[in-house]
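Document type: protein sequence-to-structure record

Subject area: structural biology

Format: plain text, a pair of labelled lines:
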Amino acid sequence: MCSCRGGFTGPNCETDINDCAPNPCLSGGSCTDGVNSFHCSCLPGFTGPRCAVEVNECQSAPCKNGGTCTDYVNSYTCTCRPGFTGINCETNIPDCTESSCFNGGTCTDKINGYSCTCRSGFTGSHCQYEVNECDSQPCLNGGVCQDALESFRCSCPKGYTGNRCQVHTQHILFYTILFYTILFYTILCYFLLFYYILYYIILLNSKLLYSILCYFILYYIILLNSKLLYSILCYFILYYILYYSILY
């Protein structure tokens, strides 16, 4: 009587035992018999010596941008977050349209949303509101503000003027009178100055005095061109002319 090696049987150990009977492979796998062994060829989506393990397609994290992966046999699906699409949630859905931003605003696409950059003079999440320049109450002294695009206009009450009604008309009158008063006395001063210059030049026939006066007049009046210096020089020369005329 023969004592057979593993995998064989029969009186003379002539028969190879079929290790695939019954089929040890699970999940539809195909069995290939060997000597005292077998090999399983698994269907797609399964693995392991007996094809008992399902392959987890979500293990490689195929879903992008925070999508949720659901595993199936030899496949998977991605449930995308709002704002994304595609098999693997790889595409950002464009949210900007021609009507997203009003009044010429510029639309910037974001994840599941957008933002508007408004032109000057407009505001709001969709640039739908015109900025009211009168909200800051720019008109002073009881002026009435009228809003316009990127500007405003003040209607001033009686007695005030200026783009913000900030100037009292009495102040204008005061400074106008003051200006013409100073102008009048300055002209008078020049007249008296040149009168005394001519007087002393003719009377005293002094070339030295003529030269000195001409030097000061040309230097301060022509070169510096300052009204304040006109007046100071005029009073200064008159003072000394009158002073010396009294003494001598």
Observations:
- The longest strand covers residues 30-34.
- The chain has a mean pLDDT of 80.
